[in-house]
């Protein structure tokens, strides 16, 4: 009588090396005219699946493709590209018949999920499933990614995430770190003034770096990147504030407002922005943080390199990922800014802001604390309990 194999977690423990996470490339797949070698952001569209539904005669494939792809940010498409790569690699490895590779049914999808569990982070595998769902949508089909068995398998991958795949939390940039960095910048120089203004704008405005920088000099477009004319000054209750109207954000193609308020020196974003504008007088259509006589737009690489140079000089942590957005969110909450105001400032429409919080104890303890008389008696009681 056959039975299901016992899960690894319930088998007798054996000493084994942790599995390695193979790095796949398109060159590792069998050659196919349906899978051309294209940039990652184009892969979901360019890789034509077998059994794709026939297109109706009135269908304009170019127009439809353009409008479908436009619904995702480029960075999202690049992440989803890994999904189809790993899917076809797995299908090749297990000799899955082509007719079963698209559309993907729950049985094959769960097998694919299980094959990667314990090797990759559960969140990574979940993103692959989202990518495969997008792949189906683009090519006129559907995939049931909300099937209860699929969801159960995805929950299992999170529990089986290997320690080697878990990254330590990003170190947030704090107000104290920014103050320590300040002496490393020569604000009389146009480039340093632009970098410093961007640094403070990202921190106090809870911005993603991709919203204020550009990937390359040639990539600058006022459709996606804020030009100088989108800076507006305001005077409220006698204090000067500034807003930057973002034409586009990662989560909202219609853009959003980045609000900067006067802060104490030496880390006031409004004063830093004024200094930058004075030293880098540019036409209204130039990139908001363009600098120097050639009006070079600020690339993410140039910005990050200069900040990390300053960090090394002052023995501070290097800038990584969402360090500024995380730090700014935490700083505002520590200053008792209401949660709704922080969510609005960070342009969050969901509870995703919670993962940006650091220093939970300092934030929560004052709210949970007892009134002073009761706190004194409670402390006395705790002190008498011993270990």
TrEMBL record:
One of its GO terms (molecular function) is DNA binding. Residues 18-37 are annotated as: Disordered. One of its GO terms (biological process) is DNA recombination. Keywords: DNA recombination, DNA-binding. This is Tyr recombinase domain-containing protein. It comes from Tilletia controversa (dwarf bunt fungus). The lineage of its organism: Eukaryota, Fungi, Dikarya, Basidiomycota, Ustilaginomycotina.
